[in-house]
Amino acid sequence: MKADGIVIGGGPAGLAAAVAARKSGVQDILILERDSELGGILNQCIHAGFGLHTFHQELTGPEYAQRYIDAVHERGIPAWTDCMVLDITPDRVLTVTGRAVGLQQIRAQAVVLAMGCRERPRGALNIAGTRPAGIWSAGTAQRMVNMEGYLPGRQVVILGSGDIGLIMARRMTLEGAEVKAVAEVMPYSGGLKRNIVQCLDDFDIPLYLSTTVVEIHGQEHLTGVTLAQVDDKRLPIPGTERYIPCDTLLLSVGLLSENELTRQAGAALDAVTGGPVVDAFNAHIRPSIYRKLSPVAKKLPESAQALTSELDFPAAYQAFLDWCGEDTLWAEWGAQDHGVLAANAAYWKLPAPPVTACIDLQAAFCRTLEIGLGRRIALEQAAEYCGLPLIYEFHNALHDALYAALITAWLTESSLLPTVPRAEAKHKRRRGVKFSRETYPKQPRQKITPLPEREQLLNSRQARIVPCPLCRQPGAVESWYPQGDVYYGVFRCENHGLFPVRMSVVHREDGSWQGRRVVPPLTDPERAAFAAARENEPFHCTREKAKRRRRHRKAK
Question: Helix, strand, or coil here: 448?
């Protein structure tokens, strides 16, 4: 038997891949699924929160999966369920077995591996004790409750505070079980903050951080577990043990990629992800602008390879654009990489990168963790928070891109908001500032600490950092526009848009300058006053001045 394309796995990834292949013109496609029905893990995820980004509405897991199942059926794509792939060769010959199809060999022009993952078992944790009944992985318990209609136990302890563990804490409580504790070996929870609130806080379920299970009690059936606190090396601290009676222990301790067929296909595996190594672009560019590297640049990884490289920026830039292709979604950790790439392209008089929108993964990570606008988390801190093994060096372009891509698994769909690239954003600012249409109550005036100089006052952090009148998230004023003794500025809230700021400045008798700042209501007179102030020469704050000087030097 032959086929143009075979998709191994009938979960959401496999279904989406089959639909995309059919849209691209591939006609002979076959989906192989070992379960009795399509949908994969989503069939047991009956909680809401899916589909916001793809379908622009909140769906449960089965509803989300059904959308793709319907798309597969509408296009007439065949799917074999209750079918297992026993073997795959590097030349794409699959050995398949199933009750309905028997034993067959299929040769494919292309194979898509969408096997998903499995949960980490108890054996990988090396927990002391016997092997009684009552120990389940959180995913298995989820399937038993949501699909099979069985309750694993009545008194539950959960090890691991990932999203599945938190959701199962709520699910078991709703089914009448008593969840006595959720233990997490890390000093922070691995789940979303909203799940901690909705699944633990709302049901008064205790969460013990820096705590793990050190012993399991019971012979035929589980009777209890012993918890203990751990140090910074995740080793139990003597004297902190506590016994908790229970009849069920749920393990939510990570996932393992299904890589058996991947290895048989001859694909190399990544040491960080545990999955196959995917396509990546990495090039060392020979420095050609400055005569010598700065001491900081010399300490960067792979500087020696760059100095001896035969590749200059124009050649590497063209190779990179060819590798990206036309239909590419751009994302970066922070909001600077695209601007730096565009500035280098402009220096070499090359066309700007074809980016219409870019996703700031750093800001998305902060939004997911509900961290304020003024704070940013370094890539290394984010990788450690997500529990990624830190085996690669940071401040390496390829390694940083790898870690940033892995962190996207912890992001919510609603946090992935694309932004306009810097060059296009400048063009839009010239047209004028469009403020948010939100209304809010009258804001109190804030006195600014007096300073010796007017410029110091305008540039002070107390004057520049302004809370949003709706959500209190801080934003920064980059420029002040004078109108007599009154200065107008503007700051951005990521949730509610742009807001004007008005600050009156007075010269005190002791020679110092004092300001009084307010976020005025968004009325037509205020908009008119701000528009009149913008006609005057603005005062740019120090950070903005430094940025302009750096851009000017690069342009030369």
Answer: strand
Tell me, what's the pLDDT at 433? 65
Q: The tokens of 16 are what?
A: 């989406």
List of residues 6+ apart from 292 with CB closer than 8 A: none
Question: How far does CA 313 lie from the centroid of its chain?
Answer: 30
The alpha carbon torsion through 290, 291, 296, 297 (nearest 10 deg) reads 70
Contact indicator for 80, 99 with CB cutoff of 8 Å? no
Q: Per-residue pLDDT tens for 386-425? A: 777 777 888 788 888 888 888 887 787 667 776 655 544 4
Please name each of the domains of the chain with its CATH number: 2-116 (3.50.50.60), 122-255 (3.50.50.60), 295-421 (no CATH), 432-555 (no CATH)
**Separation between Cα atoms, residue 527 and residue 309, nearest integer Å:** 55
Q: Which token pair is 551?
A: 């851009």
CB 159 within 8 A of CB 61: no
DSSP result, 83-129: EEEEEE-TT-EEEEEETTTEEEEEEEEEEEE---EEE--GGGTT-EE
Residue 411's SS3 state is coil
> What is the distance between the alpha carbons of residues 58 and 237, in angstroms, rounded to a whole number?
44
Q: Per mean pLDDT, which of 218-227, 262-271, 287-296 is the most reliable?
A: 218-227
Question: Alpha carbon of 167 to those of 52, 138, 205, 332: distances in Å?
Answer: 19, 9, 12, 30
For residue 464, give the nearest of 478, 481, 451, 482 by alpha carbon: 478
Tens of pLDDT, residues 170-203: 999 999 999 999 999 988 887 888 889 999 999 9
pLDDT-wise least confident of 61-75, 233-247, 414-428, 429-443? 414-428
Query: Which residue, among 198, 151, 162, 203, has the nearest Cα to 179 in the 3D structure?
Result: 203
Encode burial over 421-455: b for 16+ CB neighbours within 10 A, e otherwise.
bbeeeeeeeeeeeeebeeeeeebeeeebeebeebe
DSSP 444: P
Sheet with 178-183, edge to edge strand ranges: 135-137, 248-251, 155-159, 178-183, 207-208
- Measured over the CA atoms of residue 46, residue 52, residue 55 and residue 56, the dihedral's sign is positive
Q: At what angle do helices 12-23 and 61-74 cross, to 10 degrees?
A: 30
Q: Indicate the pTM of the whole model.
A: 0.58
Asked if 377 and 365 touch (Cβ cutoff 8 Å), the reply is yes
94, 6 in Cβ contact below 8 A? yes
In angstroms, the CA 362 to CA 364 distance is 5
CA dist list (Å): 313 to 283, 340, 355, 484? 10, 13, 19, 49
Crossing angle between the packed helical segments 337-347 and 422-430, to the nearest 10 degrees: 90
**Residue 14 is which amino acid?**
G
pLDDT of 375 reads 66
